[in-house]
Specification:
Number of domains: 1
Low-confidence stretches: 1-8, 253-274
Number of strands: 9
Largest sheet: 9 strands, mixed
Order of helices and strands: HEHEHHHEHEEHEEEEH
Strand content: 15-25%
Radius of gyration: 20 Å
Length: about 270
């Protein structure tokens, strides 16, 4: 990489896929790069809340400081990565229109790079935020680019577009909204206490579970599934209910065949009915 390219990377708002352990898997799996925007979550930057629907459990276990972002020198509470994320967040609140325009230009540059290299790319606006207006604006400007996000804002199906796929995230406080999302064709991400290397539960209240740790490319998931994730970092010690404890799940949410088992309605599942 040339010095000019290095400077451009440092100034860029998006982080490239190879810089993130999760999105790097997309390159190996499908030769697809990911542009991901990392802001300072919630009100971490002190200028406004970028995660308005975050629950206490979500905030307590946020992976904002995961990976290199969590490496601190002795006696220090921050590092250049965290400070850059705060700076981006302040830039957004200072001038949202200019910020979106800057993201737009980076996506356009990625298109030029795609034409030159042949490697496709996708965009995740909300790596550590939940700003639907930003994502929808960029999805509208770039109908030939695939965007995807996780969200905790209710009624996610209203924000899905042909080129913008959403996965709703379960918290300790939005179980009913999860089944509502599934009923409207939006997958739901659930964090389980399943340890690394162990198999996730096959179903969640009768809904198939796919392994979301294999890749971050959520737009490749089939519709009508739970995206299972394993608790990482501070979430391993969660006591809020944000992380689902597999041992507490019903062994069977449907009567046996001899009792005339019927397919479970999603809303029944949400009420815990059998």
């Amino acid at each position: 990489m040339t010095r000019k390219q290095t400077r451009e990377r440092r100034k860029a708002l998006f982080t490239r896929g190879e810089s993130n352990a999760k999105t790097r898997k997309g390159i190996k799996l499908a030769n697809v790069d990911t542009l991901i925007l990392h802001l300072a979550p919630a009100n971490e930057a002190g200028v406004g809340n970028v995660c308005a629907s975050a629950s206490p459990g979500c905030l307590a276990g946020c992976l904002y400081r995961a990976g290199r972002a969590g490496i601190l020198k002795a006696g220090e509470k921050t590092n250049p990565i965290l400070e850059r994320r705060k700076a981006r967040t302040r830039e957004y609140f200072a001038n949202p229109v200019a910020f979106v325009d800057a993201l737009d230009r980076e996506i356009q540059s990625a298109k030029t790079r795609r034409a030159r290299t042949g490697r496709d790319f996708v965009v995740r606006i909300n790596g550590t935020s939940d700003l639907p207006k930003v994502a929808l604006e960029l999805a509208s400007r770039h109908p030939d680019v695939t965007l995807y996000d996780y969200t905790k804002h209710a009624r996610p199906w209203e924000r899905v577009r042909a080129n913008y796929k959403l996965t709703f995230s379960r918290t300790e406080a939005n179980e009913a909204a999860c089944f509502d999302a599934l009923a409207h064709g939006v997958n739901v991400a659930i964090v389980f206490d399943t340890k690394r290397g162990q198999t996730l539960p096959a179903t969640y209240y009768g809904i198939p579970v796919v392994d979301g740790d294999v890749t971050d490319l959520r737009f490749l998931d089939p519709t009508g599934v739970v995206v299972g994730l394993r608790a990482k970092g501070k979430l391993k010690g969660d006591r809020t209910g944000f992380v689902v404890r597999v041992a507490t799940l019903p062994a069977n949410v449907c009567p046996s065949a001899s009792q005339g088992c019927r397919p479970m309605d999603l809303m029944d599942a949400g009420r815990g009915a059998a």
